[in-house]
Amino acid sequence: MLTHLAALLLAPGAAGLSAGTSFLTAAPIEADRPVQVAAVTGDYLYWSFPATAGQQPHLTATVTLPPAADRHGAQAWTIEVFDGLRRRQPCVAGEQSPIAEPAATDITLGCDLRQIRSWAEPSDQDPLPGTYYVRLTSTEIPEQDLGLPLKVDLTLTAEKGDTGADQGTLAAPLNPVSRPGTVSADVPTPAVSPSADPDDTSAFSFVPEFSSRWIWTTTGGVLAAVAGLVGFSFTRRRRP
């Protein structure tokens, strides 16, 4: 099927750029430069584009379907956008997963991303500047329709949003740099007396500290020994 896709992309009359078949082979696109590619049903189509802080990317894809006489039922399509870490970004507007009826000649998909931010907290999922990936594919299609030729028109626009609404810079690192080995000047150093402390028991450190645990352990051992002796006295045989 990938060979069929490559042949269609290189066929005469195929306008615009090609489309990749994975994240690694995603074809780069630019804003306000429409793309038109020839493909086949059942394949995954990938594109990539850069986004900067303050932009609001808007994607529109129109799929010209194969002739209705060659199709065997309805088709479901979807368009998805991922950031540079392959995290799926939500679409705040646009028909992301429409269904084409059997008699439809084309289907239009859309995805509006949130405004790209210049910074975000580590736990946030806000879109940040960098490379974004677009994936277009059919999610439900009759098996008999796999491999039918179609045409895709993709348009990317990047409107300028409110750059002062949620933008900013970090005033200080989130984790301050520590300096091991330094001592604050205002922390008093404890004085050491040259004479021996009469309460110092370090000389008898080999003597274990007695506690309730020692008492119960010793008592249990004694009771066990007594019980053993009593039992032995009842069970031993007297000599005649």
Write a short abstract of this structure:
The chain has 240 residues and is an alpha+beta fold. It is 13% helix and 28% strand.
CATH class of the largest domain: Mainly Beta
Helical content stands at 10-25%
Strand content: 25-35%
Low-confidence parts lasting 5 or more residues at pLDDT below 50? 1-14, 170-178, 190-206
**Main β-sheet description:** 6 strands, mixed
Overall structural domain count: 2
Give me the number of helical elements.
2
Fill in the CATH topology of the largest domain. Answer: Jelly Rolls
What overall geometry do the principal axes of the alpha carbons give? elongated
Counting helices, strands and paired strands, the structural category is alpha+beta
User: What integer is the average pLDDT?
Assistant: 77
- CATH architecture type of the largest domain: Sandwich
Task: Tell me which oligomeric state these chains represent.
Answer: single chain
Gyration radius, in Å: 38 Å
Tell me the total number of β-strands: 10
Secondary-structure element series = HEEEEEEEEEEH
N-C termini distance:
103 Å
Keywords: Membrane, Signal, Transmembrane, Transmembrane helix
Protein name: Peptidase
Region (Disordered): 162-198
Signal peptide: 1-26
Q: How would you summarize the topology of this molecule?
A:
Elements (H helix, E strand, L loop, with lengths): L1 H8 L17 E2 L6 E6 L4 E7 L3 E10 L10 E8 L5 E2 L9 E2 L5 E7 L17 E11 L8 E12 L51 H24 L5
Parallel strand pairs: 1-3
Antiparallel strand pairs: 2-10, 3-9, 4-8, 4-10, 5-6, 5-7, 5-9
Protein name: Peptidase
Keywords: Membrane, Signal, Transmembrane, Transmembrane helix
